[in-house]
Amino acid sequence: MKLEGIRVLDLSQFLPGPMLTQMMGDQGAEIIKLEPPGEGEPVRRVGYRANGESVWFRNTHRGKKSIVLNLKDKTDREAFLALAKTADVLVEAFRPGVMDRLGIGYDDLRAINPGIVYVSISAFGQDGPDAQRPAHDIAIEALSGVVSLNLGADGKPTNPHMPVADMAGSYTALAGVLMALIGRQRTGQGDYIDISMQDSTMAWLPNVVGPVFAENRPPRVKEERSFGGYALYNTYETADDRYIVLGGVEKKFAVNLLTALERQDLIETACGAPGPGQDPVKEFLRATFRSRTRDDWEAWFAGKDICFAPVLDLHEAFHRDHVRHREMLLRDEDGNLHIGCPVKFRNEPAKLDFSLPRLGADTDHYAPRKIPGK
C-alpha cells in the first residue's frame, strides 16, 4: 500500500485529526493514537452506539493502536520522546502553544528527529488575533461566512448539517502531510505544517465569492447562482411532500428539460441571469413537480440528459446501489457498518482494518516507561 512503512503519532481528538490519520491508515500507514489518561478519546463516548462502540469512534479510529501517556509527567514525556524519534508524522490539534509548553513542540522534536513532518490543526491557525479563540465547527463556519449562506425556509441562518470546517481542515492537512513527505525524499528534512480550519474552509469558496470580490458586497443568497438564484439549480417539492433537485444550468439541460415538459417558451428565461428574472421558470417548475411523487419523477427523468436527483435522506443515500458498488458502505465480520475509503487506487487499493483499539492497549509496546531505579 502507498503509505506502508510510515509511522504516524496522532495526538488529536474529535474529527479533523483522527479523520486525517484514519485515511492514512487505510492506505497502510501505522497509526499510533495517544490518548489522555482516564477516559481517553472523547468520541469513544459521543453519540449513537452499535455493538458497544460509538459509531463516530468506529469510523475515525479503525485499525489504530492506542497508547495512554500523561504528557505532563516527566517519565511519560520521556517515553513519548523516545517514540517520537521513530515517527515520520505527528498530528496534534491542541490550542496554539500547548505543545511547546509541554516540551514536545516542533523545535523540540526536530532536534531529535529532523525528518519529522509535524502538523498542527487548529481552529484559526498558530498566529493572528483569533489564534487563541475557542471554537468548534459551527463557530468556525460562522466566522468564515458560511453560516450566512446556509439559510432556512424563513431566510434566517440555520445550523450547517455537515462539519465543513472540520473536514476541510482534515483534507487540507492530509494534502500538506503528503506534500511534506514527498519533499522529505528530496531534502531529508521534515517540516512544520500550520493548518487553520478557517483558512481551509475559506479556501473552499472560489465559486461563491464573486459578489465579494467583484462588487464589494455580501451575496444576496437567494439570488446567487449557487444558492437558488437559478431555476435549474434549485430544490422543488413533490406531491408526496418530498423533494427533488435540478443541478445544471447549462443551456442544453434547459433545452432538454423544458422541451420534454413542452415549455420551450421558457428556455431563454431559464438561460438568463440568476435572480428575480428566473421567477417565471421557478413558478412553472414548482407547480409541475408538485404534480407527481418523488419516485415518479425519478422514473420520468431516467434516460434524459438533465441534471436531476431525488433528495434522499441519509439512510437512503448510504443504501443506494451505487454507494454499495463503490464500497462506501461496508460491513465487518461482526455486522458493524463502516464508511468506506474514498481514495480508490487501482494497483494498491486500501486495506481497511476494522479492529478498534482498547484504550491504552499498546502503551507497553510502543512507549514503555523507564521506571527510576530499575
Please render the helix and strand layout as text:
Layout: E1 7-10, H1 16-26, E2 30-35, E3 49-50, E4 53-54, H2 55-58, E5 65-68, H3 74-84, E6 89-92, H4 98-101, H5 106-112, E7 117-122, H6 137-143, H7 164-187, E8 191-196, H8 197-202, H9 210-215, E9 233-237, E10 243-247, H10 251-260, H11 267-270, H12 279-289, H13 294-301, E11 308-310, H14 314-318, H15 321-325, E12 329-331, E13 337-339, H16 363-366
Protein name: Succinyl-CoA:(R)-benzylsuccinate CoA-transferase subunit BbsE
Keywords: Transferase
Organism: Oceanibacterium hippocampi
Characterization of this structure:
GO terms for molecular function: succinyl-CoA:(R)-benzylsuccinate CoA-transferase activity. It comes from Oceanibacterium hippocampi. With 374 residues, this protein is an alpha/beta fold. The protein folds into two domains: 239 residues, 3-Layer(aba) Sandwich (Rossmann fold), CATH 3.40.50; 74 residues, 2-Layer Sandwich (formyl-coa transferase, domain 3), CATH 3.30.1540. 34% of the residues lie in helices and 14% in strands. It contains 16 helices and 13 strands. The strands form four sheets. A six-stranded parallel β-sheet has the order 5-2-1-6-7-8. Strand 9 and strand 10 form a beta hairpin. Helix 1 crosses helix 7. It starts with 6 loop residues before the first strand and ends in an 8-residue tail after the last helix.
